[in-house]
């Protein structure tokens, strides 16, 4: 109030006494009786705003638009520009990569390859041009830098490719073609208009030909040279010999056999293949073996199959990839008793007859041979000119002369061994036949093939009665029959064993599936224990796997071989003994 009063008094004095204004030059000087002046702070009605975050946001947006994008990130939180998307990769070289490119940025063993859409012809043209001239067009280059390689050679050759023909070369070819046309023309020849309009005539072809070969008639055959005549005579002679031998058969080698035992007959006149009289089943139940009992070594290459002597198991037969078949003693000496040599290539499969006195062998030399086990003589030999992958005899006692063989030409061939004649051919598969398994009291048999299917046949009738093929199925190179004859175990190449019923429907049992082993790519054998309680299989890592039939759980695994364990057989009498064979050439008895 004092300030207002002072302000009012001063105004009054200024207005009333202008002379005093001249006398007092500083009218604002307060009187000594007035209160001292006080300054009021300025106030603003606008709210106080912190613009720090706004400044940071603007700075980050500017930084995002200028910084390169990380090539390994999958999401971009802003809209990048074209230059940012296609900018080259910057940054320090990777310390552990030879070329400085991190492993995550590679899509090729030599670094990073950029995708480009190029037609096959254009690619071939640039590829061959680069190898011939040293330069090629760059499909992903920017404007003004369209070539890579030797740019000096590019300027010298005027940017031509291997497929572009220079102008002077084109003219030269046209002149040569015109000369050829004139030489072919006969000036005295009278052209028939009817023939000229008929596309089937030579005149029309000569006039409208578009290639060097069009319209040219084959000339008369000239006489053969001495060398050609000699070759033709040799070829005709060779064909005649093949015709006399009965067509294209397997390779033949002399059949030999060597006995390695002490004597072929004992003091009572019994043969060395006779089973011991005291051989009988030791247990009613089978047990998983725990330790190695014996190892047979004699094959110089892998062993592809093993078979115990039927019913007694006192001998074991082995088929080797060294072209030999050997039979070994199991109970006594544990030595090789006889070697059978009659194949020129690896032996694929073997099979005993019911009493074990004879056996079959199938080799990659396209031959099937029927041997006498005791003497080692070949009783008969069969061949169709194709490789037999599996051989089986009909299990019926009255049909032991019937041989079935699954061939590489998709057929199952049936022979009568008494007459050596083919009596039936089962031809429905679309790939090589791998297995033959008799079911239903030997009235039917199941075959598997490389065509990833199973087919069921009536014996003697070449018509499929059941065809099993699903999109998820794989090839099944080994099939075994359960001792109860109600189930089939099929080794599938997707690392599992599938179970099929042998009733009318041959249905897949989805509740039983045995897995855990690695067999993809290998024809590892699957088998059952004689009492049916266990399933056994080899695998590609040299192990032998045992599963419980009821629970489908892995019971035990044995490390048997170095490499692939290809075959496994359960002893028919000694219920806790198992034999395995592998590509290491060994047969092991557990």
TrEMBL record:
Ranges annotated as biased composition (Pro residues): 27-39
Organism superkingdom: Eukaryota
Biased composition (Basic and acidic residues): 177-196, 215-268
Repeat (WD) residue spans along the chain: 296-330, 340-381, 426-458
Biased composition (Acidic residues): 11-20
GO process terms (BP): mRNA splicing, via spliceosome
Any Pfam family matching the protein: WD40
Localization annotation: Nucleus
Region (Disordered): 1-45, 164-275
Record key words, sorted: mRNA processing, mRNA splicing, Nucleus, Repeat, Spliceosome, WD repeat
GO cellular component: catalytic step 2 spliceosome
Main location (coarse class): nucleus
Coiled coil: none
Protein name: Pre-mRNA-processing factor 17
Species lineage: Eukaryota, Viridiplantae, Streptophyta, Embryophyta, Tracheophyta
Name of the encoding gene: LOC108986776
